[in-house]
Inverse folding.
């Protein structure tokens, strides 16, 4: 089973968008995916309610219950869990990072947003978990800007995911319809970008598990 924590102190950085779409991509790739929504604002849960019974399932959790919910989900056959978190360095983010195999930190590629991820990076360090910044909602093609953003992220002591999720209106349209971009526009660019980030995520988790086992 793979557990991904989506964490960032900053509101509106794309946590919920990444959470629901990553879980939907996992489901489309054959996993039994589950989203655990730890944000009291319950945005992912709202998305789940709009979908009615359609997978992936969304459940909510208070921070102290996250581990128990993960254990229960595992017993029920979940193979890919995404934990969405609220925008604060609170206990939900800590507990999510603690149980995760991999932490993704969505961040808009602007100087203000990048500066704000430092607290998130400190939190992730505390638990010594593999973590990557994922650039969200930025321009599609701005190689120089992304190069600078990557350098800045590395100066904080963290790596950036090679896949980006640039600004695409389909995320807003899909969410409003209780859909993932893969369902809403299967042949679209956003669907391909989400599928690519899912594949990268799986590869990354396999790599760190292998390293951990010393194989
Ligand atoms: N890659 C993207 N392209 C376009 N809009 C995006 C993208 N990522 C996020 N958004 C939009 O930005 C807003 C905030 O995203 P959200 O996922 O709710 O952030 P958070 O959960 O971190 O507060 C939403 O309206 C969402 O549709
Ligand atoms: Mg959110």
């Amino acid at each position: 089973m793979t557990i991904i924590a989506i964490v960032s102190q900053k509101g509106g950085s794309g946590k919920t968008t990444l959470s629901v779409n990553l879980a939907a991509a996992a489901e489309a790739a054959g996993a039994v995916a589950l989203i655990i929504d730890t944000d009291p604002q319950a945005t992912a849960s709202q998305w789940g309610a709009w979908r009615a019974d359609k997978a992936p399932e969304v459940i909510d959790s208070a921070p102290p219950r996250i581990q128990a919910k993960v254990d229960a989900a595992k017993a029920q056959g979940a193979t890919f869990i995404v934990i969405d978190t609220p925008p604060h360095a609170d206990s939900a983010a800590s507990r999510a990072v603690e149980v995760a195999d991999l932490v993704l930190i969505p961040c808009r590629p602007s100087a203000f947003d990048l500066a704000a991820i430092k607290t998130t990076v400190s939190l992730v360090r505390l638990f010594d978990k593999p973590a990557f910044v994922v650039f969200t909602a930025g321009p599609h093609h701005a190689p120089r800007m992304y190069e600078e953003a990557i350098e800045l992220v590395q100066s904080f002591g963290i790596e950036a995911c090679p896949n980006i999720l640039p600004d695409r209106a389909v995320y807003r349209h899909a969410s409003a319809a209780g859909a993932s971009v893969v369902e809403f526009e299967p042949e679209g660019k956003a669907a391909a970008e989400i599928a690519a980030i899912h594949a990268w995520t799986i590869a990354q988790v396999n790599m760190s598990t292998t390293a951990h086992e010393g194989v």
In short: Residues 189-213 form the longest helix (25 residues). The longest strand covers residues 102-107.
